[in-house]
Structures are given as C-alpha cells and as structure tokens.
Amino acid sequence: MNYKRFLSVLLIFLSLVINAQEYLYPVASITRGATPYLYFIHQKSLHNLELLQWDPETKVLSKALSSLPVIAGLRVLPDNSGFSFFDKAGHINVKFFNKRSPKVLEIYEPMHGIEMLEWIDAQHFYCYAHCNPHGYDTIAVFEGDVNGYCRKIAGGLGYDCLYPQKIGSKLFYIERWKEEGGGYSYYLMSMDYPEISRNCTSFNTTNNFDERVAAFIKNKEQGIIGTSIASGESQQLIACGSQPCRFLHMVSHREGFFVRHTETVDTLAHSMLFSYHHIQQNVDETWSMAQLFAFDIPMGLITGENDERLYESLLPLLPFHVGLDIYYTTLQVRAKMALPSGRTARGLGIFRYNLENKTTIPVSTINSTVNFPEELKKNVSTLAVLPEGSEFLTSELEGSCFAPFAFANKIFYGKVLQSSKEANDLLSGMSLNEYGDITYQAPYSKD
C-alpha cells in the first residue's frame, strides 16, 4: 500500500468526526469521458469546506481540489470541461480538467460582490453584482468571460436587478425598487438578451493598451463596465408586491419559479418559513403566479457565524426540479414536541411535490409513520405540505437529510452530522479498499 496516499486519505476520514457538527451534501454531477461523477461539498466548519468527487462504480470518494479551504457556488461548464466556484475572497475560479490549478478570473472594479453566476457556454457567463455608477450602490446584471472581460446587461440608478435567468434569446430577472416610505417593491422582468460578445480580449494583454485604458477610464466615469451597456428595453411581467422574491428559476420562456419570505426576518426565531411560487404565461400573453408549497428551515442553518450555519446559506436548501417533481427540504413539524417514540419532531425531511396532480408526499428510506394522539395534534403546528388529517411521518432521514439531488436515476441527499453517533453512522458507510482509497456508499432515497 502507498503510505503517503494512505495518510492523505486518513486525514479526510478523520476530519469527518473531529468537529461537533459537519455537513456533507451533493452539489453537481459531471461526466468525464464515459464516467459520471457526483460531487459533494464537505463542510468541516464554517470556513473550512472541501470539494469531493465520488465515483458511483468504484464508490471511491476523493478530493476534487487540494489547496483551497473554502469553495461555494459551484457551477458546471456546459461542455463538462470543468467547473467554476467562488473562493473565500469572492473571486471567480474556473477549474478546467485539462489544467492543474484553477484559474482566477481577474475582473476589476467598479463591479464587485459577484453573486449567482451561470454559464452560457464554456467561455461566457452572466451574473448579478454590485456597481457604483455616480457614487450610488446598485445591483446589476453583467456578462463576462474567462479572460476577465465584462459588460453590464441590465441595470440602472434607483433599482436593483437580481437573480437573472437566460432562456434562449430572453433574459428574465427580479427588479427591486426601494420605496420612499421604506421597504421594497419587486417585479418580474424580461428583456431581449444582447448578442454575446465573442471578440473579447484580456485586460492584461498589451495589445492596443493605451486606447483600451482610455476607454476603460471614460466608461468608468460614466458608470459603464466593459465596452457597452445593452440598450434593450425591459418589460414588466408581474408586479409581485412588497414580499421579497428570491432565487428565480426559469424552466422555459413561459414558465418559472421563485422563493418568497416575509418582509421582516426575526433572526432570533428558531426557524424561517419560505414559500415556493409558480409563474407562467397565460394564453392571453399575461403572466400569473401561484404558491405551491411552504418549507421551513432552521434559522441556525442560514444565519449566524458559528459552525452550525451552512456556509452556502440557503443554496443547498432550495427546491430541486426533476421533470414534473419538485424535491424540497423542510422541518416536518414546526413545534419542538417529543414524539411517542421519544424522538423529536424537529427533524429535516425531504418531500416531493408533483406539478401535474398538485400533491405532496414525503420522501424517505423507511416508510414508517407515527400516529399522534388527538390531544397532541392540537398542540402541533404543521406546515401546509400534507393534506388535512395526514399522519405525521418519521423516517431514517429525520434530522439528518437535506439537499436532494438527482443522479443515476436516484435521489441522493446530504447529511447533517450533529453528534458523534451520526458521525459514526456516516463512517460505517466508508471503508478503505486495497489501494488505500476511501470508498463510500452515498445515501439515496428508495422512493
């Protein structure tokens, strides 16, 4: 056995039990050659995350990156040639599989605080980020490329453009306006996406340097990034009111989804209630929206500065689409109440909502239910995810599963490691093969 390899593998192995609470959850699948791999983020502490690659055939779990302590927002390049992620400093890194180290994209001011990057092709992406035209901080939509070139696509003074989604030749996004009396108003918007700039050069090249510096300074003074701002007019599709709209997800140019929550957030509360909404274009070309379901998330997972919080906050907890099914994570009961079995009802569970028949069912590895006495049911506030009179469901997943992800015709999920017992449960699914590699049976639903 190669002992140097054995020691490096052992460090991964031991790190799973050193901290009191850790997370291991799937974030992406990438096919390399003929082999599909599933990628996991292992959060060992709030500021110590690593990316792991899992081979479903050999069951080998190995590090996908060796040198970076924090990664977030992983996105796969459309041609499977690599992936991008944000490091701790918020820089965009691109890891091409044919290169040894990730490439840091050198994107300069006045764009900063880049969020929610999506790839158009292996060279171009779009995102939303902060900028400061004329000294006012706003959030706009930008297009960029792997050479560090960028230009503003949508945005202006007095409002923010959030959560862009490019579908064909159309760009959809959430527009947020600050009201004079306080608070915000939210609108679903669309516009024609401008032609992608494909003749971009790196800012660091010396070709036509003086001319490009002069243009850069002039554009900066005018609040312009890159060579131009798209002049296409935007169209308001839906006035969504004052309740925050987040994480727009368009599945076609006629249909999409987004998350909402209350205007005020009580950070001292034990949990936070979100709702998931369906938006679609009607036959008469107007747009409508409707709430599908609610999901409740422990506040400690998405706020705070201790190791209980997920570094990616709400991202791993967002609903996941598989055809007409939507898988989502929620607290199964909204009150801390002991079950007859002695277990608590505060566990996270995975549910499946079907768009066609508009029904919700729990997803579990053990189909078992617990019937509550009538007097106990009166004291428990249930989410509007199960039909009236439904039994309360518990399962092997309770308190330990989140981040559902479709891979190899199964629904895999992440695990919350809250105690040494759960850590041992995870380790029991691992072993060392004859080559000194960790093998792991990633958990998945049997439904």
How are the SSEs placed, and which strands pair?
Elements: H1 3-18, E1 22-32, E2 35-45, E3 48-54, E4 61-63, E5 72-76, E6 82-86, E7 92-96, E8 103-104, E9 112-119, E10 124-131, E11 138-145, E12 150-154, E13 159-167, E14 170-178, E15 184-192, H2 209-221, E16 235-241, E17 245-252, E18 255-261, E19 271-281, E20 287-298, H3 299-302, E21 320-322, E22 325-331, E23 348-354, E24 359-363, E25 368-370, H4 374-377, E26 392-394, E27 401-407, E28 410-417, H5 420-427, E29 430-432, E30 438-440
Antiparallel strand pairs: 1-2, 1-28, 2-3, 3-4, 5-6, 6-7, 7-8, 9-10, 10-11, 11-12, 13-14, 14-15, 15-16, 17-18, 18-19, 19-20, 21-22, 22-23, 23-24, 25-26, 27-28, 29-30
Describe the overall structure:
It is a single chain. The protein contains 5 helices and 30 strands. The chain has helices spanning 3-18, 209-221, 299-302, 374-377, 420-427; strands spanning 22-32, 35-45, 48-54, 61-63, 72-76, 82-86, 92-96, 103-104, 112-119, 124-131, 138-145, 150-154, 159-167, 170-178, 184-192, 235-241, 245-252, 255-261, 271-281, 287-298, 320-322, 325-331, 348-354, 359-363, 368-370, 392-394, 401-407, 410-417, 430-432, 438-440. Strands 4-3-2-1-28-27 form a 6-stranded antiparallel β-sheet, with helices on one face. Strands 5-6-7-8 form a 4-stranded antiparallel β-sheet, with no helix packed on it. A hairpin with a 5-residue loop joins β6 and β7 (92-96). The two termini are 39 Å apart.
